[in-house]
Design goal:
With 139 residues, the chain is mainly beta. It has 2 helices and 9 strands; from the N terminus they run ββαβββββαββ. Strands 3-4-7-1-2-5-6-8-9 form a 9-stranded mixed β-sheet. The longest helix has 5 residues, at 29-33. The two termini are 29 Å apart. Residues 1-21 have low confidence and may be disordered.
Length: 139
């Protein structure tokens, strides 16, 4: 299963998003503290041009699970970032089933240069999600 995820900026998280539309949120610490944090494992991250494919596994199988990609607003303060930490939150929708589910999520990374306009276009930037890191070339 592949989900196309759009990157946009907003100050408040939307209602739980559908599988068809996921967004990158720029959140402050109060907003981050309100997010669901159901357990999951990031199995892999692969870059394909300006898209990143993230394979996740979690326990469930009976209800819809939603993932939100977000970045803390304080990351935008650094004038010359060499790395950017993105985070995934996981809402399991109250799923009590015990199957192990593996899902692939596809994120469009090209808008990162718009949200971080001071990004140096002459070098790569490390994108970290959980304990996985990939290099993003904004050119």
């Amino acid at each position: 299963m592949f989900n196309k995820i759009k990157l946009v900026s907003t100050s408040m998280p939307p209602p739980i998003s559908t599988k068809e539309e996921k967004v990158l949120m720029i959140l402050n610490s109060d907003e981050i503290n309100k997010l669901s944090n159901a357990p999951f494992i990031i199995k892999s991250i692969e870059l394909m041009g300006e898209e990143s494919e993230i394979k996740v596994s979690y326990v469930g199988g009976c209800k819809t699970h939603d993932f939100m990609l977000f970045v803390a607003d304080k990351i935008l303060i650094d004038s010359q970032p060499t790395s950017i930490n993105l985070n995934l939150s996981h809402d399991d929708g109250g799923d009590r089933c015990k199957s192990i589910v593996t899902e692939k999520l596809v994120f469009d990374l090209s808008p990162l240069t718009k949200y971080i306009p001071h990004l140096d276009h002459k070098r790569t930037v490390k994108i970290s999600i959980g304990d996985k890191t990939v290099e993003f070339d904004p050119t």
